[in-house]
Amino acid sequence: MSTAVVINHRARSAEQKALRRHVVIEAAETYFGEVGYEAFSMAQLAKRSGVAKGTIYLYFKTREDLFLSLYEQSLTRWSHIFIGYLSKSISSEVYAETLYDTALADGTLLPLLIRLEHIIEHNVEIHSLIRSKRVFISEVKRIAEPTSTSLKLSQAQAIEIVKTLGVLLITATRVDQGPALDNEELPNDVQELIASFSSKPFFVKNAIRIIECIRTEATSNA
């Protein structure tokens, strides 16, 4: 077999593998949106994606390895969407609300982000973890650049804001993981307590404080 034939065969094989992996990822995201984290089954995913279960494990060593890839995909997708909403100058409140709304609109990102450090990252190989951290670093820098322009801060301060608001977003949205009580009759004081911890107002209020604190520090040090 000539070298050219071998190279073409490998190229086609690599293309086929990449295509098959893409099909699995797309099926996984749809399936995840339907059943969530706990009920997600690799066997069921194999049926839905039309590949053997063993084939899926050629691309993803564990269920968490698959979730990590889904997280990376959703993080990159969300960052592009969020950046598209940023203008040359916006208020801290609008910035915080936009970050929250766009992150929440992505049905994959937050459910995985909430479980990332405590579950997912503990069940993947080190090279997958390193890859994921590098994706995170890249997306933080991508978001920080327009954030710096929009909020009139330095690049370093913008990076600090993006990282800190990411942690705040995880904390705020964990509140929404509690039992659904919409149809329950609750005493007024309990209703008020629950409302005070509703994730969006909690996030926006504290995000504004963080942004303004960093802005004040920048002014003080100028």
Structure, explained:
The protein has 222 residues and is mainly alpha-helical. It has 2 domains: 1-59, Arc Repressor Mutant, subunit A (Orthogonal Bundle); 62-220, Orthogonal Bundle (Tetracycline Repressor, domain 2). The protein has 10 helices and no strands. Helix 4 packs antiparallel against helix 5, helix 4 runs parallel beside helix 7 (126-151) and helix 7 crosses helix 8. The longest helix has 33 residues, at 3-35. It is globular. Residues 5-11 have low confidence and may be disordered.
Keywords:
222 residues, Arc Repressor Mutant, subunit A, 2 domains, 10 helices, 0% strand
CATH architecture of the largest domain: Orthogonal Bundle
In the CATH hierarchy, the third-tier topology of the largest domain is known as Tetracycline Repressor, domain 2
Structural class call reads mainly alpha
Q: Tally the helices.
A: 10
Form type: globular
Average pLDDT value? 87
Q: Which CATH top level class of the largest domain fits?
A: Mainly Alpha
Q: How far apart, in Å, are the first and last alpha carbons? A: 69 Å
Chain oligomer state: single chain
Please state the CA-atom Rg, rounded to the nearest Å.
21 Å
Number of domains: 2
Helix percent band: over 70%
Characterize the main sheet.
none
The low-pLDDT segments are 5-11
Q: What is the chain-wise order of helices and strands? A: HHHHHHHHHH
Report the CATH superfamily of the largest domain: Tetracycline Repressor, domain 2
| SS strand fraction | under 5%
